[in-house]
């Protein structure tokens, strides 16, 4: 089964960035997250969206 959501640590690991950098992406609304209870989770498809947005800015 493929994961639908990732923890902040897992998402940071997949993007190869620090937790601090990932939280900055979340705070700046560049990375979409969902909150379930007290947990903040990152939908897997949000990682691709974030990379697309960052690629557009860098181009």
TrEMBL record:
GO terms for molecular function: DNA binding. InterPro entries: DNA-bd_dom_put_sf, HTH_17, SinI_DNA-bd. It comes from the Bacteria. Pfam families: HTH_17. Residues 5-52 form the Helix-turn-helix domain. This is Excisionase family DNA binding protein. It comes from Actinomadura hallensis.
